[in-house]
Amino acid sequence: MNRSALRDLVIDVLRKTPQTHFRAVENEVRRLSEEYEKRDVLLLNEILWELLLQGILAPGKNSLNPDLPFVHVTEYGARSFDGGALVAHDPDRYIERLIAATQEGAPSLLIESARVALESFLDGRHASALVLLSHAAEHVLHDLATALIRRGREADHGTKRLEAALSEPRKLGASVRRSLSGYRLPEPLARDIDSQIGGLATLVDAARSKRGLPRIPSADRDTSRARFLLFLDQCRFAYDAMRWLEGSP
């Protein structure tokens, strides 16, 4: 059975029955899907084990059954089930969303940076994850600045500040925001300039000192996950803006 489809079924079962055990999950998946076969039990166990390592599940069902194979959905796991936050715990699905957000315009370096960053997050290395995601955010801002410079030269606008900011990551977000605000963007893009570019700049600043030198940011699980979820919309905005710059008269 397809891993993504099986994972979705497992999540549905856990939503309905947050206190359960491995075999009960398998029995319910078997009931829900005609595609599930006996050999899929190992893949199902891998998915459940990943959810345990990620803190979505924890051992034990109640005081009478406190150990594996009994499990329960944690408080963090319950929050992850709401609002699509669980996508940050599924690298393949997350990368699919990222590619879709950029309408397949994201370069491979950005995709791989985001993937490695997310894998670090899932391994519990939250500071490392934010450093890597910060590098991905720099890449997005750099691409958007380059598009603005190209468009500015075509329109005979000054681009010196943007060009200088390309080598100063902490100044790049403000320069991009200022330059982009000078165009008559469509309403959805114009409305979101401050929030989306500001979000990317915040990511960059988290891993840079005031002098622009690399630093290790402070991070926890909830903050890191929120950054990954917001990054999808930030990328969507940036690459929509790039396409508009390339196609605008």
Quick rundown:
With 249 residues, this protein is mainly alpha-helical. The protein has 11 helices and 3 strands.
Report on the architecture of this protein.
By secondary structure, the protein is mainly alpha-helical. The protein folds into two domains: 3-80, Arc Repressor Mutant, subunit A (Orthogonal Bundle), CATH 1.10.10; 86-247. Helix content is 66%, strand content 4%. The chain contains eleven helices and three strands, in the order H-E-H-H-E-E-H-H-H-H-H-H-H-H. The chain has helices at 3-16, 22-32, 41-53, 75-80, 91-101, 108-122, 126-154, 160-165, 169-180, 187-206, 221-247, and strands at residues 19-21, 57-59, 70-73. Helix 7 packs parallel to helix 11. The longest helix has 29 residues, at 126-154. The model has no long low-confidence stretch (mean pLDDT 92).
Pattern of helices and strands: HEHHEEHHHHHHHH
* Radius of gyration, in angstroms, nearest whole number: 22 Å
Query: Helical residue percent?
Result: 55-70%
Structural class: mainly alpha
Q: Return the average pLDDT rounded to an integer.
A: 92
Q: Oligomeric form of this entry? A: single chain
**Shape, please?**
elongated
Number of helices: 11
Strand percentage lies at under 5%
N-C termini distance: 49 Å
Low-confidence stretches: none
Output the strand order for the largest sheet.
Answer: 1-3-2
Structurally, how many domains make up the residues?
2
Question: Biggest β-sheet, characterized?
Answer: 3 strands, antiparallel
Secondary structure: number of strands: 3
